[in-house]
Amino acid sequence: MVTIVVALFATSLVFSQDNIRYYKFEKKTMEGIKFGLFDSLKNIEILPAKYDNIGDIKDGMIPIMNDTKVGFADTSGKIVIPMLYDGGTGEFSEGVTFMLKGEKLAMINKKGTSLTQFIYDNVLGLSEGIGRVVINRKIGFVNNQGVQIIPCKFDEAYDCSYGLILCFSSSWESFATVYQQDKYGNVGSSDVGVARIKPGIFNKQGKLIYAGANNEKVKYTKTGKAIITKDQYNSEPMSKMIDNTGKVIISFEQNYCLTINDNWVDIKTPKGYFYSHGIMDFDGKILLKPNFSKISDFTFGNGAFAQVFFDDGTFFYVDKSWKCMEYDNVKCPE
């Protein structure tokens, strides 16, 4: 049963600014209003007005519909995916999309070739040429060659991002079985326990590069590094950083708590009853060692400088490259 299929066609006749070169026009016929597409740059009609609907152009591909069947044309007007399908995801990524026949989906390339069989119940996402697909309510991944790189066995997973794929496996840890008797004397039992969720990080080839522990959280930096964080009892969480091969850049043993900001990574590490602060870039390079009591936002000098505080309350200024700069009569430390 297909649960979600993204519409191929917008309800509006207006194209996005990226597609202002092409505009949709209509024609009244004996069969009702039909639509075509005009190229204003070349001043030619690339699709005649014979379609029930025409969608927005994405990745050089144009969704077309007749009699509830959909396909795709390219910007030369050539029908590259015939109107044989009942729907689809409506987008291409690295040359592939998913099309619907009946209640199943398959991956199709820009030549109209089916790269998989029509076996998927749903497509939850298509990113970096990797499809996040569903069979029997379980999530897996297929690459843009039609190869299923991760089997459909996960309850929770996320689209490929920066070449990394995040999946979560769940299990139940039972503490005890409780028996209760109702008012009619019938005895029933219930299991008391807790759900455990473990992350697994895969690369685009479907290789597992990190097998996580219970309830760890994962976030990506803008350069494709993964930060894994685990909670600690009565203390700040600890973090580690790995690259897209699984190589450890920052280990849990360094006792860092890492938080991703827009342009850097904040470091917090225990120091007695307090915490020290530092700054790291998205690749794990330490820009300011975590030796400071506080680091402000860039709110000084019209947003050019931040303050970095020593434990005794004195401070110096840094610019956005985290280099010390003399400002407002405050000199740099030795």
Commentary on this structure:
- This protein has 334 residues and is mainly beta.
- It contains no helices and 30 strands.
- The strands form 8 sheets. It has a 4-stranded antiparallel β-sheet with strand order 4-5-6-7, with no helix packed on it. A 4-stranded antiparallel β-sheet has the order 11-12-13-14, with no helix packed on it.
- The N and C termini lie far apart (68 Å).
Spatially, the strands of the biggest sheet line up as 4-5-6-7
Count of DSSP helices?
A: 0
The ordered string of helix (H) and strand (E) elements is EEEEEEEEEEEEEEEEEEEEEEEEEEEEEE
Q: Profile the largest sheet.
A: 4 strands, antiparallel
Radius of gyration, CA atoms, in whole angstroms:
28 Å
Features:
334 residues; extended; four-stranded antiparallel beta sheet; mainly beta
Helices and strands in order:
Blueprint: E1 22-29, E2 32-39, E3 44-51, E4 53-54, E5 61-66, E6 69-74, E7 79-85, E8 87-88, E9 96-101, E10 104-109, E11 122-127, E12 130-135, E13 138-142, E14 148-154, E15 156-157, E16 164-181, E17 187-203, E18 208-211, E19 217-220, E20 226-232, E21 235-242, E22 248-250, E23 257-260, E24 265-271, E25 274-280, E26 286-292, E27 294-295, E28 306-309, E29 315-318, E30 324-325
Antiparallel strand pairs: 1-2, 2-3, 4-5, 5-6, 6-7, 8-9, 9-10, 11-12, 12-13, 13-14, 15-16, 16-17, 17-18, 19-20, 20-21, 21-22, 23-24, 24-25, 25-26, 27-28, 28-29, 29-30
